[in-house]
Amino acid sequence: MKRFLVRSISELVTCAGGKKRGRAMGDAGVIPDGAFVVDGGIVRAVGTRRELEAKYPGLPALDCGGCLVTPGYVDSHTHLVFGGERSSEFVRRLRGEPYMAIMAAGGGIAATVAATRAATEQELAEAALPHLRRMLAMGVTTCEVKSGYGLDTETELRQLRAVARLNGMQPVELIPTFLGAHAVPAGEDADRYIDYCIAESLPAAAESGLAAFADIFCEKGVFSLAQSERYLRRAAELGFRLKVHADEMSPLGGAGLAVRMGAVSADHLLQVKEEEVAALAASETVAAVLPLTAFCLAERYAPARRLIDAGAALAVGSDFNPGSCCTCEIPLSIALCCIHMHMSIEETLTALTVNGAAACGCEDRVGSIEAGKQADFLVYSCPRKEFLPYRTGANLVRSVYKKGELVYG
Ligand code: NIG
Ligand code: FE
Protein backbone atom coordinates (compact mmCIF):
# COMPACT_ATOMS: atom_id res chain seq x y z
CA MET A 1 0.00 0.00 0.00
CA LYS A 2 2.06 2.92 -1.28
CA ARG A 3 -0.52 5.65 -0.87
CA PHE A 4 -3.16 5.31 1.84
CA LEU A 5 -5.36 7.14 4.31
CA VAL A 6 -4.88 6.39 8.01
CA ARG A 7 -8.28 6.81 9.65
CA SER A 8 -10.71 5.70 12.39
CA ILE A 9 -8.46 7.38 14.92
CA SER A 10 -10.33 8.46 18.06
CA GLU A 11 -7.54 10.89 18.93
CA LEU A 12 -4.66 11.80 16.62
CA VAL A 13 -1.73 13.35 18.51
CA THR A 14 0.41 15.00 15.82
CA CYS A 15 3.08 16.85 17.90
CA ALA A 16 3.36 19.07 14.79
CA GLY A 17 4.99 22.51 14.67
CA GLY A 18 8.67 21.85 15.41
CA LYS A 19 10.63 21.90 18.67
CA LYS A 20 8.46 23.26 21.47
CA ARG A 21 9.49 25.14 24.59
CA GLY A 22 7.75 26.18 27.78
CA ARG A 23 3.99 26.48 27.69
CA ALA A 24 3.88 25.45 24.01
CA MET A 25 4.92 21.93 25.06
CA GLY A 26 1.35 21.52 26.35
CA ASP A 27 0.02 21.74 22.80
CA ALA A 28 0.48 18.25 21.37
CA GLY A 29 -1.61 19.02 18.26
CA VAL A 30 -4.57 16.78 19.10
CA ILE A 31 -7.16 16.14 16.35
CA PRO A 32 -10.28 14.22 17.41
CA ASP A 33 -11.35 11.80 14.65
CA GLY A 34 -8.12 12.71 12.87
CA ALA A 35 -6.67 11.20 9.72
CA PHE A 36 -3.61 11.51 7.52
CA VAL A 37 -2.40 10.55 4.08
CA VAL A 38 0.81 8.54 3.67
CA ASP A 39 2.51 8.43 0.28
CA GLY A 40 5.84 6.70 -0.35
CA GLY A 41 6.57 6.52 3.39
CA ILE A 42 6.02 10.26 3.88
CA VAL A 43 3.06 12.06 5.48
CA ARG A 44 1.39 14.18 2.77
CA ALA A 45 -1.64 15.68 4.52
CA VAL A 46 -3.12 15.78 8.03
CA GLY A 47 -6.64 16.75 9.10
CA THR A 48 -9.96 15.35 10.24
CA ARG A 49 -11.31 12.15 8.67
CA ARG A 50 -14.16 14.12 7.12
CA GLU A 51 -11.80 16.65 5.48
CA LEU A 52 -9.38 14.10 4.10
CA GLU A 53 -12.04 11.65 2.87
CA ALA A 54 -13.57 14.52 0.89
CA LYS A 55 -10.21 15.66 -0.46
CA TYR A 56 -8.79 12.20 -1.27
CA PRO A 57 -11.79 10.06 -2.31
CA GLY A 58 -11.17 6.39 -2.97
CA LEU A 59 -7.78 6.09 -1.26
CA PRO A 60 -7.14 2.69 0.35
CA ALA A 61 -7.57 3.00 4.12
CA LEU A 62 -5.61 1.82 7.11
CA ASP A 63 -8.33 1.51 9.74
CA CYS A 64 -7.11 2.13 13.30
CA GLY A 65 -10.28 0.77 14.94
CA GLY A 66 -11.15 3.93 16.86
CA CYS A 67 -7.86 4.06 18.77
CA LEU A 68 -5.22 6.57 19.77
CA VAL A 69 -2.43 7.34 17.27
CA THR A 70 0.80 9.25 18.04
CA PRO A 71 4.15 9.77 16.31
CA GLY A 72 6.81 7.11 16.95
CA TYR A 73 8.96 7.85 19.99
CA VAL A 74 12.47 9.25 19.71
CA ASP A 75 14.71 8.01 22.52
CA SER A 76 17.29 10.81 22.57
CA HIS A 77 19.83 9.30 25.00
CA THR A 78 21.01 5.68 25.21
CA HIS A 79 24.20 3.68 25.78
CA LEU A 80 22.77 0.69 23.96
CA VAL A 81 25.97 -0.91 22.63
CA PHE A 82 28.16 -2.53 25.29
CA GLY A 83 29.78 -5.79 26.38
CA GLY A 84 28.82 -7.78 29.49
CA GLU A 85 26.40 -6.85 32.25
CA ARG A 86 26.59 -5.40 35.78
CA SER A 87 23.84 -7.09 37.79
CA SER A 88 26.16 -7.64 40.75
CA GLU A 89 26.82 -3.89 40.89
CA PHE A 90 23.06 -3.33 40.88
CA VAL A 91 22.77 -5.57 43.96
CA ARG A 92 25.58 -3.61 45.67
CA ARG A 93 23.64 -0.42 45.02
CA LEU A 94 20.48 -1.98 46.47
CA ARG A 95 22.54 -2.58 49.63
CA GLY A 96 23.40 1.11 49.79
CA GLU A 97 26.70 1.58 47.92
CA PRO A 98 26.53 4.82 45.88
CA TYR A 99 27.00 4.69 42.10
CA MET A 100 29.93 7.15 42.18
CA ALA A 101 31.67 5.23 45.01
CA ILE A 102 31.55 2.01 42.97
CA MET A 103 32.97 3.93 40.01
CA ALA A 104 35.74 5.53 42.12
CA ALA A 105 36.70 2.05 43.40
CA GLY A 106 37.35 0.88 39.82
CA GLY A 107 33.93 -0.68 39.09
CA GLY A 108 31.06 0.90 37.19
CA ILE A 109 31.84 2.09 33.67
CA ALA A 110 35.37 0.55 33.89
CA ALA A 111 33.85 -2.94 34.20
CA THR A 112 31.85 -2.44 31.02
CA VAL A 113 34.94 -1.03 29.28
CA ALA A 114 36.82 -4.29 29.91
CA ALA A 115 33.92 -6.39 28.55
CA THR A 116 33.43 -4.09 25.54
CA ARG A 117 37.12 -4.16 24.59
CA ALA A 118 36.89 -7.98 24.57
CA ALA A 119 33.85 -8.06 22.24
CA THR A 120 33.80 -8.05 18.42
CA GLU A 121 31.70 -5.63 16.40
CA GLN A 122 29.25 -8.43 15.56
CA GLU A 123 28.99 -9.51 19.22
CA LEU A 124 28.29 -5.92 20.28
CA ALA A 125 25.56 -5.57 17.65
CA GLU A 126 23.99 -8.93 18.53
CA ALA A 127 23.93 -8.11 22.25
CA ALA A 128 22.06 -4.86 21.53
CA LEU A 129 19.50 -6.41 19.18
CA PRO A 130 17.02 -7.83 21.75
CA HIS A 131 16.94 -4.47 23.55
CA LEU A 132 16.19 -2.68 20.29
CA ARG A 133 13.42 -5.18 19.50
CA ARG A 134 11.89 -4.43 22.86
CA MET A 135 12.18 -0.67 22.28
CA LEU A 136 10.44 -1.05 18.94
CA ALA A 137 7.57 -2.95 20.58
CA MET A 138 7.16 0.01 22.96
CA GLY A 139 6.99 2.44 20.04
CA VAL A 140 10.56 3.72 19.68
CA THR A 141 11.21 4.37 15.98
CA THR A 142 14.36 6.53 16.33
CA CYS A 143 17.07 6.13 18.95
CA GLU A 144 20.32 7.89 19.78
CA VAL A 145 23.20 5.53 20.71
CA LYS A 146 26.49 6.55 22.33
CA SER A 147 29.89 4.93 22.29
CA GLY A 148 31.86 5.44 25.51
CA TYR A 149 32.80 1.93 26.64
CA GLY A 150 36.07 1.74 24.75
CA LEU A 151 38.03 4.76 26.01
CA ASP A 152 40.53 4.05 23.25
CA THR A 153 40.18 4.94 19.59
CA GLU A 154 39.95 1.38 18.36
CA THR A 155 37.13 0.25 20.65
CA GLU A 156 35.19 3.53 20.45
CA LEU A 157 35.15 3.19 16.65
CA ARG A 158 34.18 -0.47 16.93
CA GLN A 159 31.18 0.56 19.01
CA LEU A 160 30.20 3.15 16.40
CA ARG A 161 30.58 0.56 13.62
CA ALA A 162 28.34 -1.77 15.64
CA VAL A 163 25.73 1.01 15.69
CA ALA A 164 26.01 1.38 11.91
CA ARG A 165 25.67 -2.40 11.53
CA LEU A 166 22.60 -2.43 13.80
CA ASN A 167 21.03 0.27 11.64
CA GLY A 168 20.91 -2.23 8.82
CA MET A 169 19.68 -5.15 10.97
CA GLN A 170 16.33 -3.85 12.26
CA PRO A 171 13.82 -0.99 11.71
CA VAL A 172 14.68 1.48 14.51
CA GLU A 173 16.71 4.36 13.04
CA LEU A 174 19.88 4.93 15.09
CA ILE A 175 21.64 8.27 15.64
CA PRO A 176 25.26 7.64 16.75
CA THR A 177 27.14 9.82 19.26
CA PHE A 178 30.87 9.68 20.04
CA LEU A 179 31.29 9.61 23.85
CA GLY A 180 35.05 9.08 24.05
CA ALA A 181 35.13 11.07 27.32
CA HIS A 182 32.77 8.85 29.32
CA ALA A 183 35.27 8.01 32.08
CA VAL A 184 38.98 8.25 32.79
CA PRO A 185 40.62 4.93 31.80
CA ALA A 186 42.20 2.95 34.66
CA GLY A 187 45.65 4.25 35.55
CA GLU A 188 45.23 7.36 33.40
CA ASP A 189 45.04 11.00 34.43
CA ALA A 190 41.95 13.01 33.37
CA ASP A 191 43.91 15.87 31.76
CA ARG A 192 46.18 13.50 29.89
CA TYR A 193 43.18 11.49 28.69
CA ILE A 194 41.50 14.67 27.40
CA ASP A 195 44.77 15.45 25.57
CA TYR A 196 44.53 11.98 23.98
CA CYS A 197 40.90 12.57 22.94
CA ILE A 198 41.84 15.94 21.44
CA ALA A 199 44.87 14.60 19.57
CA GLU A 200 43.62 11.14 18.57
CA SER A 201 40.17 9.77 19.26
CA LEU A 202 38.06 12.85 18.40
CA PRO A 203 39.87 13.40 15.06
CA ALA A 204 39.65 9.66 14.26
CA ALA A 205 35.92 9.65 15.02
CA ALA A 206 35.43 12.77 12.88
CA GLU A 207 37.43 11.20 10.05
CA SER A 208 35.35 7.99 10.24
CA GLY A 209 32.11 9.89 9.64
CA LEU A 210 30.40 7.42 11.99
CA ALA A 211 28.95 10.00 14.43
CA ALA A 212 27.50 13.48 14.05
CA PHE A 213 27.47 14.20 17.81
CA ALA A 214 30.14 14.26 20.51
CA ASP A 215 29.31 13.98 24.23
CA ILE A 216 31.21 14.05 27.55
CA PHE A 217 30.48 13.00 31.16
CA CYS A 218 31.05 16.38 32.87
CA GLU A 219 30.96 15.35 36.53
CA LYS A 220 32.78 15.79 39.81
CA GLY A 221 35.46 13.06 39.92
CA VAL A 222 35.20 12.40 36.17
CA PHE A 223 35.79 15.40 33.84
CA SER A 224 35.85 18.94 35.23
CA LEU A 225 34.26 21.96 33.58
CA ALA A 226 37.65 23.08 32.22
CA GLN A 227 38.45 19.61 30.83
CA SER A 228 34.96 19.32 29.34
CA GLU A 229 35.30 22.71 27.69
CA ARG A 230 38.64 21.76 26.08
CA TYR A 231 37.12 18.54 24.72
CA LEU A 232 33.93 20.18 23.48
CA ARG A 233 35.86 23.03 21.76
CA ARG A 234 37.94 20.50 19.83
CA ALA A 235 34.82 18.47 18.98
CA ALA A 236 33.08 21.59 17.64
CA GLU A 237 36.18 22.50 15.60
CA LEU A 238 36.08 19.04 14.04
CA GLY A 239 32.45 19.58 13.03
CA PHE A 240 30.63 17.58 15.73
CA ARG A 241 27.37 18.83 17.19
CA LEU A 242 27.55 18.74 20.97
CA LYS A 243 25.83 16.99 23.85
CA VAL A 244 26.80 17.08 27.53
CA HIS A 245 26.09 14.71 30.44
CA ALA A 246 25.43 17.63 32.79
CA ASP A 247 24.74 18.00 36.50
CA GLU A 248 23.80 14.35 37.02
CA MET A 249 25.32 13.58 40.41
CA SER A 250 26.58 17.02 41.49
CA PRO A 251 25.79 20.64 40.53
CA LEU A 252 29.03 21.20 38.65
CA GLY A 253 27.66 23.63 36.05
CA GLY A 254 27.60 21.35 33.01
CA ALA A 255 24.26 22.80 31.91
CA GLY A 256 25.73 26.32 31.80
CA LEU A 257 28.72 25.00 29.84
CA ALA A 258 26.38 23.24 27.38
CA VAL A 259 24.53 26.52 26.80
CA ARG A 260 27.78 28.53 26.38
CA MET A 261 29.07 25.97 23.87
CA GLY A 262 25.80 25.99 21.90
CA ALA A 263 25.25 22.28 22.60
CA VAL A 264 22.20 20.66 21.03
CA SER A 265 21.29 19.11 24.39
CA ALA A 266 22.25 19.09 28.07
CA ASP A 267 21.29 15.73 29.54
CA HIS A 268 20.39 14.45 33.06
CA LEU A 269 20.15 17.76 35.01
CA LEU A 270 19.15 16.10 38.30
CA GLN A 271 21.23 18.64 40.22
CA VAL A 272 20.97 21.63 37.88
CA LYS A 273 21.32 25.02 39.59
CA GLU A 274 18.48 27.52 39.44
CA GLU A 275 20.47 30.10 37.42
CA GLU A 276 21.25 27.40 34.87
CA VAL A 277 17.57 26.54 34.55
CA ALA A 278 17.13 30.13 33.40
CA ALA A 279 20.15 29.89 31.07
CA LEU A 280 18.75 26.71 29.48
CA ALA A 281 15.33 28.33 29.10
CA ALA A 282 16.87 31.31 27.30
CA SER A 283 18.90 29.09 24.94
CA GLU A 284 18.33 26.73 22.01
CA THR A 285 19.86 23.84 24.01
CA VAL A 286 17.33 21.08 24.67
CA ALA A 287 17.07 20.04 28.34
CA ALA A 288 17.05 16.24 28.08
CA VAL A 289 15.78 14.60 31.25
CA LEU A 290 16.16 10.89 31.95
CA PRO A 291 13.67 9.92 34.65
CA LEU A 292 14.44 6.18 34.49
CA THR A 293 17.99 6.87 35.75
CA ALA A 294 16.77 8.94 38.70
CA PHE A 295 14.30 6.14 39.47
CA CYS A 296 16.91 3.37 39.28
CA LEU A 297 19.45 5.32 41.35
CA ALA A 298 16.74 6.45 43.81
CA GLU A 299 17.92 10.02 43.25
CA ARG A 300 15.82 13.14 42.93
CA TYR A 301 14.21 13.78 39.53
CA ALA A 302 15.37 16.60 37.27
CA PRO A 303 13.25 19.72 37.84
CA ALA A 304 11.15 19.19 34.71
CA ARG A 305 8.29 21.39 35.90
CA ARG A 306 10.61 24.32 36.70
CA LEU A 307 12.42 23.91 33.38
CA ILE A 308 9.17 23.94 31.39
CA ASP A 309 7.69 26.80 33.41
CA ALA A 310 10.87 28.82 32.82
CA GLY A 311 10.46 28.24 29.05
CA ALA A 312 12.93 25.46 28.28
CA ALA A 313 12.47 22.85 25.52
CA LEU A 314 12.44 19.52 27.35
CA ALA A 315 13.10 16.07 25.87
CA VAL A 316 12.77 12.74 27.69
CA GLY A 317 15.20 9.90 26.98
CA SER A 318 15.80 6.52 28.60
CA ASP A 319 19.59 6.60 29.28
CA PHE A 320 19.50 2.80 28.78
CA ASN A 321 22.92 1.50 29.91
CA PRO A 322 24.34 -1.52 31.79
CA GLY A 323 25.04 0.44 34.99
CA SER A 324 22.94 3.29 36.30
CA CYS A 325 19.81 2.47 34.30
CA CYS A 326 19.39 -0.93 32.66
CA THR A 327 15.89 -0.20 31.41
CA CYS A 328 14.40 1.62 28.44
CA GLU A 329 10.71 1.12 29.27
CA ILE A 330 8.68 3.89 27.65
CA PRO A 331 5.53 3.14 29.71
CA LEU A 332 7.53 3.55 32.94
CA SER A 333 9.11 6.76 31.62
CA ILE A 334 5.66 8.16 30.87
CA ALA A 335 4.44 7.25 34.34
CA LEU A 336 7.44 8.91 36.00
CA CYS A 337 7.02 12.08 33.91
CA CYS A 338 3.35 12.43 34.77
CA ILE A 339 3.32 11.14 38.36
CA HIS A 340 6.69 12.22 39.76
CA MET A 341 7.85 15.05 37.50
CA HIS A 342 4.43 16.70 37.31
CA MET A 343 4.37 16.94 33.53
CA SER A 344 1.06 16.78 31.68
CA ILE A 345 0.56 13.90 29.25
CA GLU A 346 0.72 16.44 26.37
CA GLU A 347 4.10 17.76 27.61
CA THR A 348 5.31 14.19 28.05
CA LEU A 349 4.35 13.23 24.50
CA THR A 350 6.00 16.39 23.11
CA ALA A 351 9.17 15.53 25.07
CA LEU A 352 9.21 11.93 23.78
CA THR A 353 8.63 12.81 20.14
CA VAL A 354 9.38 16.15 18.47
CA ASN A 355 11.64 17.48 21.24
CA GLY A 356 13.50 14.16 21.38
CA ALA A 357 14.02 14.53 17.64
CA ALA A 358 15.33 18.07 18.20
CA ALA A 359 17.79 16.69 20.79
CA CYS A 360 19.03 14.30 18.05
CA GLY A 361 19.12 16.91 15.28
CA CYS A 362 16.53 15.06 13.18
CA GLU A 363 13.39 17.09 13.79
CA ASP A 364 13.20 17.89 10.08
CA ARG A 365 12.48 14.18 9.36
CA VAL A 366 10.87 12.56 12.42
CA GLY A 367 9.06 13.31 15.68
CA SER A 368 5.65 14.44 14.42
CA ILE A 369 2.81 13.47 12.13
CA GLU A 370 3.04 16.37 9.77
CA ALA A 371 3.18 16.92 5.99
CA GLY A 372 6.70 16.25 4.68
CA LYS A 373 7.87 14.08 7.57
CA GLN A 374 8.49 10.34 7.67
CA ALA A 375 5.34 8.36 8.40
CA ASP A 376 6.61 6.93 11.72
CA PHE A 377 3.54 6.36 13.87
CA LEU A 378 1.99 4.19 16.58
CA VAL A 379 -1.48 2.69 16.86
CA TYR A 380 -2.52 1.90 20.43
CA SER A 381 -5.08 -0.38 22.04
CA CYS A 382 -6.68 2.55 23.94
CA PRO A 383 -8.83 5.48 22.80
CA ARG A 384 -7.10 8.47 24.43
CA LYS A 385 -3.62 9.65 25.45
CA GLU A 386 -4.65 9.87 29.13
CA PHE A 387 -4.66 6.07 29.21
CA LEU A 388 -0.87 6.05 28.85
CA PRO A 389 -0.09 7.20 32.42
CA TYR A 390 -3.41 5.90 33.77
CA ARG A 391 -2.63 2.30 32.74
CA THR A 392 0.61 2.79 34.64
CA GLY A 393 3.54 0.80 33.26
CA ALA A 394 1.48 -1.05 30.63
CA ASN A 395 2.58 -1.10 27.01
CA LEU A 396 -0.54 -0.05 25.09
CA VAL A 397 1.22 0.13 21.69
CA ARG A 398 -0.53 -2.28 19.31
CA SER A 399 1.32 -1.62 16.07
CA VAL A 400 4.31 0.40 14.94
CA TYR A 401 4.85 1.92 11.48
CA LYS A 402 8.20 3.18 10.19
CA LYS A 403 8.23 5.17 6.93
CA GLY A 404 4.67 3.97 6.34
CA GLU A 405 5.54 0.25 6.73
CA LEU A 406 4.22 -1.99 9.50
CA VAL A 407 7.33 -2.99 11.47
CA TYR A 408 5.74 -4.35 14.63
CA GLY A 409 2.30 -5.70 15.57
O1 NIG B 1 24.30 8.44 31.69
N1 NIG B 1 26.60 9.02 33.67
C1 NIG B 1 27.32 8.47 32.87
N2 NIG B 1 26.95 7.54 32.00
C2 NIG B 1 25.79 6.74 32.14
C3 NIG B 1 26.02 5.57 33.00
C4 NIG B 1 26.90 4.62 32.33
C5 NIG B 1 27.18 3.38 33.11
O2 NIG B 1 26.99 3.32 34.33
O3 NIG B 1 27.63 2.43 32.43
C6 NIG B 1 24.62 7.60 32.51
O4 NIG B 1 24.01 7.45 33.59
FE1 FE C 1 24.00 8.70 29.78
Automatic annotation (TrEMBL):
InterPro entries: Amidohydro_3, HutI, Metal-dep_hydrolase_composite, Metal_Hydrolase, MQNX/HUTI_composite_N. GO terms for biological process: L-histidine catabolic process to glutamate and formamide. Residues 111-408 form the Amidohydrolase domain. Pfam families: Amidohydro_3 (PF07969), HUTI_composite_bact (PF22039). 4-imidazolone-5-propanoate binds at residues 86, 149, 182, 248, 324. Its EC number is 3.5.2.7. Catalyzes the hydrolytic cleavage of the carbon-nitrogen bond in imidazolone-5-propanoate to yield N-formimidoyl-L-glutamate. It is the third step in the universal histidine degradation pathway. This is Imidazolonepropionase.
